[in-house]
Amino acid sequence: MNSSLRKIALLILAVIILPVLVFSVFEIGNLRQNEKIIQDIYKNQLDAILFSVNQYSDDIVSNLSSRIENSLNDNKPDTVPELNRLLSEFSAVISLMQFDNNLEYLSSVPYSYRDSTLLSEIITRLGSNGNTLHQLQTYMKGGYRKIETIGKTSRDMQLIVFYTLVKDQYIINVLVIDPGKFISQVLDPKIQEIAKDKFYIVAYRAGEDLPFYTSDKQYNPEKIDNKEPFWLLKDYLMGIEMKDLTIADLARERTKRNLILVVLMDTVLLSGTWLIFRNVKRQVELSQMKSDFVSNVSHEIRTPLALISMYIETLEMGRVKSAEKIKEYYNVILLETSRLSGIVNRILSFSQIESNKRKYTFSETVINEVVENAALTFRYSLENKGFRYSFEPGEDLPVIMADRESIADAFVNLVDNAMKYSTENKDITVRTGKYDNYVFVEVEDHGIGISDKNQKFIFDKFYRVTEMNLANSVKGSGLGLAIVKHIMDIHKGSIYVKSTPGSGSLFRLSFPVK
Question: How far is it, in rounded angstroms, from Cα 511 to Cα 508?
Fold first, then answer.
């Protein structure tokens, strides 16, 4: 049996458990990779949003530069009012200053800035960005206007430079922009449109931990990891974060959910595997017990048949002359015949129980009468084997509704077990009594007893205790207590077992009173 179970266990391990474990390890390993992929996907999405804000700001300044060039080429005698009107539309623009290719000052709008210290700062910046100016002019000659930031002033004003072509002359234009106003006033409508109810978009000055602008005025971010620089604003950053959950939280939430699903699936599969193995194990054990049952019953039947055959043959041949010896032989034949009859009756009874063909006739029954009548069937066997039998009947016991034959069978099976498992102390005591709404009969012996771990199995069909080689030294079918359990279930009664190894056992059958 152990070999068969081992093979089945290895088969289940190979077919179910190992694939489940490999799949689980693979999936758990992929969860970390999936978390990174999710973070990358969402980061790319957020980067695309920040890119669109930068693109929008670039488009605004490009559009303004085109309008400035158009105003300068309108052939109007005075273009300053038109430029003032244009710049007034952009509250973030402080001034527009124009220079020729030799960095000679041409004009400024508003006009008041021409003598300011700002002018000298701008000229210094232009001089230090000669390569940038050359590249911008090259782009302009190629028909493409490019815009660049050449730094910021001492008052944190951003300097944005671009070229215009006015009457075949290339003019350097410098827009002086207030970055705070540019973000909070010019870019704010676009940012609000993008953010909606899904994102927080914020703006930082370089070196500062807290933002000076947020798309949601009620939002105070503690830390935003996803940041990108503004294209047109030097030392300014914009950050973006999802509302409700950060990218890390979202990835962790998905990972947690997937992990729970993997664990749940593994639990279901392993539980199902365990149930399959337990049922298969039970069937294998049952098959083995059936095989043992056939072997034991065959031996038990063969032994009394052999004795009966031998004694009858001896008597038939007339070898025994003494009347006393003849009587002894007849007693042995009677004893073995009774034993054989008991085995056959037990098997037939169990067969009827298994096929639900056993019939029960319930009638008013006095338990003491059943016990006294049943004792007559085994008293000779008890005395012949040296047992001391005592009966302690309860007084004034109430009547029960029972099938007399079946409870007699149950009682006889208990006494038979007491005889089998008794050793030196061959005292067997039978008692009847009552408690609450029950009448009971109990059988007590002083035999080898039953361990706690075996007590929960002794009522299973074909089960035999294997400790101390009992299954081989004490012959039996493993059906007696299974029959007792079935009879008690039919009577809606109960069985109580009290046993200590080496000190004997007590079995009590309790029947509900009428």
Answer: 10
